[in-house]
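Quick one, tokens below:
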């Protein structure tokens, strides 16, 4: 049974290929661009692997997008976050192509989506279609590149998935896309961390990392800045910090493979051939998460955490741990390869030292294991249920009170603050947290929970109030406190009231919220509901005119509510 489970895990991650893709089956998905890229497949990002490739559209919106192969439009979405306007093509060759951050769909599809939005009175839609409704031929126009959803600039986010499993494919590694790239990865520094296992529960303990600078000696060849062996304990692992570049652009890219060789023999390998979406968050286990949070590069742990998916590691001896006896000298090599096949190598000696790291058990802490549910509390003020699979390794957990955060005006703090895990402890699944709070009746519908994010900012994590407690499900468990958001969103029209918009293609507003975040909005023109797209990265809300000008005055009414239930309303006129 274990062999079957390991095979399935490798299959879904990409360790075993169900179908070899033929590059001749696909055409480039964007017309009229230079063919440059801003991000590659599988990049390590806090909270997820990057699921596709980002193709530059030369800094502009509106570039034509075409079907990569014959198939049909199986899904379109319009949403303020994620991929924004996105189109999914189910292709005859067994794959699904995903196009994200569109400006608009082609005219007939755009008209269908517009009709559905009016029929449903819905600003966001997720529409699915069968094979006969929207067939496409290879090279046929399907839409236009844009900047919608969680996009920071005009580009196309492009994916290929196996249709039956929805496993994502590494398009460059498989030759579907061929960027110009003869530059090997840059190895920037390494870190060494000693480990120990505590008690009968096997709690994992780590030392603070010791860091070592690296210098390049030739193209693709690196050494440490000193010639002395790196002193190691009886058991530990290394972390490599690296990045990649491509010809013609200044963007950073992720690595395809990292291999550790101990005395010339491979002992660890991480490889990014593909994954299913349920494994996307495993990036936090592949990376050395505490170091990754403070780096713009990839910080890859050359060891597998206890509950990290095995499928990303085709070579794994003793989970990648390096053992050295006192005085023993060994040779360690680290190879880094990008998806275009360029390789860099760092080699250095390590030497075992006397003594070593011995962790001390924390008898007052709870033990949280990946394979079972746990519950922790702090008096009557805080309780938390931690589901099985939430943590990547067995940990001590000792909830504690901490300093209440400083929040913006309009946000009222209603409870003490608590810490369950520090902000640099990654969680694969959210935990259920309940905090006791004395909440005045007038604020109960405005109440939610706040936490500290990885940048040290207070962020909303949702929740609801009942019977003197606020309960929320969250992966952010540092500096948790109950708050009430009392301020409505802010609406600013990007036109002068009464102005003529006869030459304009859209009605535009700037929309912002102080804390809880925008949840919903309704735009009426002359009392009639009309769709409006929200662009959170730009802070705007836009209705594209879809009726001919009447050369008269019109009245608009926009209401915007945040997740705490505060609502703002703007009313005004324009001429068109």
């Amino acid at each position: 049974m274990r062999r079957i489970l390991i095979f399935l895990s490798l299959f879904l991650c990409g360790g075993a290929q169900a179908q070899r893709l033929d590059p001749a089956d696909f055409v480039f998905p964007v017309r009229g661009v230079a063919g440059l890229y801003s991000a590659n497949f599988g990049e390590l990002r806090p909270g997820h692997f990057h699921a596709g490739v980002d193709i530059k559209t030369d800094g502009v919106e509106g570039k034509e997008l075409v079907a990569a192969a014959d198939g049909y439009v199986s899904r379109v979405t319009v949403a303020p976050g994620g991929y924004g306007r996105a189109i999914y093509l189910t292709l005859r060759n067994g794959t699904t192509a995903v196009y994200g951050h569109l400006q608009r769909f082609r005219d007939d599809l755009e008209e269908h989506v517009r009709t559905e939005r009016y029929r449903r009175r819905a600003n966001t839609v997720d529409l699915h279609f069968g094979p006969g409704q929207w067939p496409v031929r290879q090279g046929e126009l399907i839409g236009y590149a844009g900047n919608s959803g969680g996009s920071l600039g005009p580009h196309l986010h492009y994916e290929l998935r196996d249709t039956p499993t929805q496993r994502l494919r590494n398009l460059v590694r498989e030759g579907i896309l061929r960027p110009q790239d003869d530059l090997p990865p840059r190895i920037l520094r390494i870190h060494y961390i000693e480990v120990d296992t505590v008690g009968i529960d096997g709690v994992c303990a780590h030392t603070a990392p010791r860091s070592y600078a690296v210098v390049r000696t030739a193209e693709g060849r690196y050494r440490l800045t000193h010639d002395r062996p790196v002193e190691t304990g009886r058991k530990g692992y290394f972390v490599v910090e690296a990045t990649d570049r491509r010809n013609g652009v200044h963007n950073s890219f992720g690595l395809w493979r990292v291999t550790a060789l101990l005395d010339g023999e491979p002992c660890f390998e991480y490889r990014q051939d593909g994954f299913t979406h349920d494994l996307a968050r495993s990036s936090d286990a592949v990376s050395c998460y505490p170091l990754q949070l403070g780096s713009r590069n990839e910080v890859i742990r050359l060891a597998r955490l206890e509950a990290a998916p095995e499928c990303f590691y085709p070579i794994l001896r003793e989970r990648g741990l390096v053992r050295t006896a006192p005085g023993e000298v060994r040779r360690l090599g680290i190879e880094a390869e990008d998806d275009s096949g360029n390789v860099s190598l760092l080699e250095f000696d390590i030497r075992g030292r006397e003594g070593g790291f011995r962790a001390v058990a924390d008898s007052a802490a709870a033990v949280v294991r990946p394979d079972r549910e746990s519950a922790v509390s702090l008096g009557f003020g805080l309780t938390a249920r931690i589901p099985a699979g939430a943590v990547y390794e067995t940990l001590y957990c000792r909830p504690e009170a901490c300093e209440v955060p400083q929040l913006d005006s309009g946000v009222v703090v209603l409870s003490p603050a608590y810490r369950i895990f520090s902000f640099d402890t990654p969680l694969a699944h959210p935990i259920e947290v309940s905090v006791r709070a004395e909440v005045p009746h007038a604020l109960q519908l405005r109440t939610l929970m706040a936490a500290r994010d990885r940048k040290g900012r207070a962020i909303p994590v949702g929740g609801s109030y009942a019977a003197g407690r606020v309960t929320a499900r969250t992966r952010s468990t540092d500096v948790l406190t109950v708050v009430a958001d009392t301020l409505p969103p802010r609406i600013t029209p990007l036109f002068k009231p009464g102005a003529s918009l006869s030459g304009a293609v859209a009605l535009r507003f700037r929309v912002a919220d102080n804390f809880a975040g925008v949840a919903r909005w309704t735009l009426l023109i002359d009392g009639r509901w009309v769709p409006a797209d929200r662009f959170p990265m730009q802070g705007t809300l836009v209705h594209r005119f879809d009726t001919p000008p009447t050369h008269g005055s019109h009245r608009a009414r926009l209401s915007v509510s945040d997740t705490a239930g505060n609502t703002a309303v703007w009313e005004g006129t324009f001429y068109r």
